[in-house]
Predict the 3D structure of the following.
Amino acid sequence: MFDLYYRQQGIQGNPPVVLLHGLFGSLENLGAVAKVLAEDFSVYSVDLRNHGRSPHHEMMSYELMANDVICFMDSLNLTEAVLLGHSMGGKVAMEVALRAPDRVSGLIVADIAPVRYPPHHHQVFAGLQGLALSAITSRAQADKELAAYINEVSVRSFLLKNLVKTSASGFQWRMNLSAIAKHYEHIMAGQSSESSYDKPVLFIKGGSSDYILPRHQDAILSLFPAAGVKIIQNAGHWLHAEKPALFNRIVSQFLRSILIAQ
């Protein structure tokens, strides 16, 4: 079994919520919402394969990542849970819901649609793969070199959270960069299914983000006919970090509505 690294918060026995991060991320990315939800739910923050502290594997696809999550739930005897995923994690969550709808009591998808996206991380890969890790002596040096490829300080800071110092000298990546790059086309893929997931689904869109657009509506509703959408104005793709209070409130309200319906 592929053992995913995870962190549990809240009282075990409360309704379970599983949080799934995005590309190049880790469970820490959704730490703010996990802390809020832990007051009322049993929250499981997960590192997906090839990310964070979870095992590395040469293969990577949404089918495999969805199966990882289902096996993770099996290992903890979680027969059913609400899944919340951001970006790539949202696609993993959708894949789980479509493949095993009986295991997912509700679904929250943050700023991603079940569609194929054009590749758009070329500079990120060029910068990360261009770092001579054995020659890096400080995080500041890595940031300076990465700046030649990536202008945004916040993006570099996010990516460099994957950089960990070795016991001797130099640094190494905590994520499996080679596997992520090799299977990048799979990560850009969308979701497809002959059946739909009919339980409650909430898509949360950043108002300034172009990841969910009007042209995606048909694809969303064909797979998730009960889907609703909330828009957080003046927020981009990192809406949970840019507008945490509003994001957390929207998530909490949706989860309460699911519990009332049950």
